[in-house]
Amino acid sequence: MNEDTIKMRLASRLQKWFGIVLTEYPVKGGRIDILADYRVVIEVKSKTRFLEDAKKQVLKYAKYIPNSIPVVTDGETFLQFANGKWKAITFDDLVAFANPLYTPEDVARAVESLKSRAIEILREAISQKRPSIRTAYDQLMKKIYHESTEELFIYHSLIAIIIDAFIEELVGTLPFDILPAVISWWRGMPQIAEIKEEAREIAKRLDPQYRGDIFRELYEAVIPRDVRRKIGEYYTPMWLVEYIVKRIVKPEDIVLDPFCGSGSFLVASFYHKIENGREPEKAMKEVMGFDINPIAVAVARANLVIAFNRYTTNIPYPRVFLGDYATGGIYDLAELKRLSGTISMLPPSLEPRHVAQLHRAIREYLTKKRTDLLEKICNELFGENGKTAFNNIVFAIDALVKRYGDGVWAELITSIFVSKISVMPDVIVTNPPWGLLSSVGGHYGKILRDKIRGYTTRITSADISQSMVKFLLEKCENSRMAFVMPAEAVFVPGSTHGLAKNITERMLKGKEWHATFINADVFRHGVLPSILWIGIPCNFEMMNISDGKIHVKPENYVSASAYEDFMKNARKKYPRLHAKGAYIMGLFTGTAPVGMSYEIDSYSEEMNMAVIKLAGLGSVRVPLDILRRNTYKLTYLGKLFPFYHEPLLVLRRRYALELVKDAVRYEKCKREWKAPDRPKVTRFACVWRAMRTPVAGVVKNEVIDSTCGYIECSNIEEAFYYCALLNYMAFTLAESNLRFSRHAYARPFAVIVACGLEWHGEDWQEEVAKIVMESNVGEAVKKAVKEKGWKTVKKYFTLPEVKELMERLDRYFTDKKECMIKNAKRYGLVF
Hints:
With 831 residues, the chain is an alpha+beta fold. It has a nine-stranded mixed beta sheet with strand order 9-8-7-10-11-13-12-14-15, sandwiched between helices. The protein has a nine-stranded mixed beta sheet with strand order 16-26-24-25-20-23-17-18-19. Helix 6 crosses helix 7, helix 10 crosses helix 11 (264-275) and helix 11 (264-275) packs parallel to helix 13.
């Protein structure tokens, strides 16, 4: 027999034991002859003598299949690779590898096999549908993602088909439809039956004991990673969901997730309630979710239905609603915008059943032109304004149908009203949308920005999640809450910097709140999260994950608001104070790969010529007079030590570019180098490191980099006074075993002001300056820098000369030590 015949017969035999048997499965570098249950990789040859070649081939393919079992065969002889060697096995041994039950990961891999074919079928089917489907879908998606594509519409429709098939197989026929109309447009189309049947076969293999989010892996399998990243969809890991639920949810609580996504928090809360003695019927009624994404609503409903079905078959409609609970329904279509006045007429007591009744009434009007049901619910909900509300809704429906056609308007119109549902949750658990507020345009963006405008004048640094927190604080002020948010907007141990963090702090003033920083990239997008807890007693904490376990330890919280308040007044009161210097990028090679800093190799005054070594470019001959006109000395963090610094020689950007002759390098340098054309040269200044330990030095006629903070001084004595004081403060704080925060900026000067130690030109201050100016401490530190090269600047405090100077300064500052420590903590310089 030839290979194709052997392959087809073997695949047919394996179908009895394996749920999924694929032939010619594509992988990098070729195709797997037979792939069974996405684990058993089989390479087929027609003759026994060809099996040696098959062994090399199957091992190459097996690298692309997780937990694979490589097998080669000629139809009669079977060889398996295990424990580093090949061994003979029988056909019975082969079928023993069959995995009768699927995990969600197995389901996702199985769906991959039908994905490409299903997408083509759906693409063709869409062309047969009216534009109302896409128009309604686009209204929902543009609100959250600011764009909508046919690609995403097809992906969401495919997931809806699979959900429908899974529910039919795992639960049976439901008395209600859990799929929003905008993604169930394919119902009744004969070409979809094949896709559903394959999906049902996959569902049959699902492990019935699995209790997590069944469709999460499925979603990630269908929608490519680059698409998910573009639209910012990242699901909360189940271990984190369960950690939050167990910590905040009580068995009798009404639980709300206003941005429920796939329903992970709702499902986990449901199971948590059952485990603590709650009846399934009560538990189901006590979890409620909202989402503007129709596929998220479908997934959340399906997950809850499957969870409930484990306990009883009398399944109630899951309380998961399509709509924006936090901000309300705001869409671009003029016909829908006209309903904003109608929404404002609603009483504050709208119940979930009212939304369901309104949806049914609108559907009856659309399909049968019945007005009685809609008129009745409008009179019930709007009271004396019932007639006006009825006319407005009918006018909107008729205008939409006339312009776009029928199909989905009942659900979209109903979604506008869901934000008015009266929910009094005991607990809110959610992962709200993330992203810069500045990225949200249109009327929706304005609503989000207005919500936190009272807490800052610099809205662009705020996060979308903070606006959502504020909305929910106003709607559910007595609820306990847990939000998964970007750490920089809530809490990072040791960090006091960040306007976003300050907004959160001001927003929660008067509330009992804490946070848990998660020291792991749990969403795999590079932004670390924190959990914001509101209304529950706990500590500020750091969570680490190691060996598959969660480790939590207490951390200190450093307030951002005291420093922000200081800076508001400091800009007027201390105009010579600078939290950081000039922003300069491109000092060293980086990726350019040329830097603007240089060293002098040799020069000749007589010949007016110099040879310089430019970072990344090597030796370059330049006219000496031109070099002097285009050079400035720069103070930056890497060369700033206690009482001593080494300035960099830096070329002005424009002249440095002239020296880069290579065209490719030139374009990279032009793009990456950032520096002012005429950076500010400071005559006298005390400069300190703006990050971590704020040791200080004195500079004269230099440019100061953004990694340093500084205060301009009227004379050299003032500069040396501040240098002595700042180094004494850093020494005192280090001796007290306090940890310096990541960002210092102007915080050291805030401590000086709080302790009443600003320069006034008094005799004792001039004495302090004179002590430092006459000491040899700078030379001692310089020598240690050359010989020791310590990377930790606090090490230089151990030098005998530095210790001796600190003892002399004790006479002037010892009574201010407690004040320094107290205010260093207050302003977030240490923790």
